[in-house]
Amino acid sequence: MSRRGFLGVAAAGVAGVMLAPGVRLIEIAQAAPAVPAGTPSAGASPKVRWGMLIDTTKCASGCTDCVTACNTENGLDPRPTPTSAQWIRKVEIKEVKTGRQASVPVMCQHCAEPPCVDVCPTGASFKRADGIVLVDRHSCIGCRYCMMACPYKARSFVHEPLTDQKPEVPRGKGCVESCTLCVHRIDAAATPALANTACAEACTKAGHGAIVFGDLNNPESEISRRVRELRSTQLRADLRLDPGVRYQGL
């Protein structure tokens, strides 16, 4: 729901607003208003489930090509500070029993059951029909409940004023944001087969081939074939959130 729509409902004098504003706020957020034609999510198809497959055996420690590509594509700070927004980060892990080390890119996992959406009091955090989890910056009030609910620490809060933004990637001070799976690229692609994320594209161009993007619901797609034929895992699969990002070699 847009901020204007939300304020309109709130101003209508719905019963219980003064006595139990929290309850009424949640009820409003759980409403499912129709998405206006022409908006990106209006074209999202429930037949598609976008996701990524990351092969940790091909991801080189110290390589930050995916991080750099994400920052460039989305207009993020190329030299992030501790308070800067970061949509993808490299995590170095080590198997205690074997000593094996791996470098793992971690971003929003685009869960089928996203906890960030469950706790958002305004409906700013939402999941599209094609599985992409996004934040509506016009509805986000900066409460950061979603940041606390995310088990992957994948969301950032924008503290600083933003300048020189890219029109296809709107951002805003005081809002929470995270990886969008380059939704602007997906919506602009002529066909689903041509859609790709900046991080996957950069990884391929660098010759690593550690990131594969595609439609998990399409049995003919490369990502679907590899998930079907090779063992992969989900981060914190025990939480049963069904992330759209899968990992090989963990």
Layout: helices, strands, pairs:
Layout lengths: L2 H9 L9 H10 L19 E6 L9 H10 L13 E7 L6 E7 L7 H5 L5 E3 L5 E3 L9 H5 L6 E2 L18 E2 L5 H6 L9 H8 L5 E5 L6 H8 L15 E4 L2
Parallel strand pairs: 1-9
Antiparallel strand pairs: 1-8, 2-3, 4-5, 6-7
Helix pairs in contact: 3-7
What do you see in this structure?
This protein is α+β, with helices and mostly antiparallel strands and 250 residues long. 24% of the residues lie in helices and 16% in strands. The chain has a 3-stranded mixed sheet with strand order 8-1-9. A two-stranded antiparallel sheet has the order 2-3. The protein has a two-stranded antiparallel ribbon with strand order 4-5. Strand 4 (125-127) and strand 5 (133-135) form a beta hairpin. The termini are far apart.
Shape estimate: globular
Q: Give the SSE string.
A: HHEHEEHEEHEEHHEHE
Kindly report the oligomeric state of this protein: single chain
How many separate domains make up the residues? Answer: 2
Number of helices: 8
Strand content: 15-25%
Which percent bin holds the helix content? 10-25%
Distance between the termini: 39 Å
CATH level 1 class label of the largest domain: Alpha Beta
Low-confidence stretches: 2-41
CATH architecture name of the largest domain: 2-Layer Sandwich
Largest sheet: 3 strands, mixed
Please report the total strand number as a whole number. 9
CATH topology of the largest domain: Alpha-Beta Plaits
Compute the average pLDDT.
85
